[in-house]
């Protein structure tokens, strides 16, 4: 399972996304989309950049972390 935390503003989280940390989970890290999403998060981290993450409004892989719908590298 690939998960990560973010700092900054977080809005519109579902009730299941109730961790004291802002935890996000890649829904399927074996898929092309999941690999791309994780790569963008790592690229932002290593370059000091930022990402915008939108969730699926569900926590299917981990009970207190929202599944990632898409990632935008800013």
Q: What are the key terms here?
A:
74 residues, alpha+beta, 1 helix, 22% helix
Structure explained in plain terms:
The chain is α+β, with helices and mostly antiparallel strands. The protein has one domain (3-73). It contains one helix and four strands; from the N terminus they run ββαββ. It has one helix spanning 32-47, and strands spanning 3-5, 23-25, 51-55, 66-73. A four-stranded mixed sheet has the order 1-2-4-3.
Question: What is the gist of this entry?
Answer:
The chain is an alpha+beta fold. The chain has one helix spanning 32-47, and strands spanning 3-5, 23-25, 51-55, 66-73.
The amount of beta strand, in percent, is: 25-35%
How many structural domains? Answer: 1
Average residue-wise pLDDT: 89
- Note the total helix count: 1
Uncertain spans, ≥5 residues at pLDDT below 50? Answer: none
Gap between N and C termini: 24 Å
Radius of gyration: 11 Å
Q: H/E order of the elements?
A: EEHEE
| Overall morphology | globular
What structural class do helix, strand and pairing data support? alpha+beta
User: Largest sheet at a glance?
Assistant: 4 strands, mixed
Arrangement of strands in the largest sheet = 1-2-4-3
Helix content: 10-25%
Question: How many beta-strand segments?
Answer: 4
Write the layout of secondary structure elements.
Blueprint (H helix, E strand, L loop, with lengths): L2 E3 L17 E3 L6 H16 L3 E5 L10 E8 L1
Parallel strand pairs: 2-4
Antiparallel strand pairs: 1-2, 3-4
């Amino acid at each position: 399972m690939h998960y990560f935390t973010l700092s900054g503003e977080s809005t519109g989280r579902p009730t299941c996304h109730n961790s004291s940390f802002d935890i996000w989970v890649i829904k399927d890290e074996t898929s092309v989309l999941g690999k791309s999403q994780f790569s963008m998060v790592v690229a932002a981290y290593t370059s000091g950049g930022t990402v915008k993450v939108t969730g699926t409004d569900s926590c299917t892989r981990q009970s207190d972390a929202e599944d990632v719908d898409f990632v935008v590298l800013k």
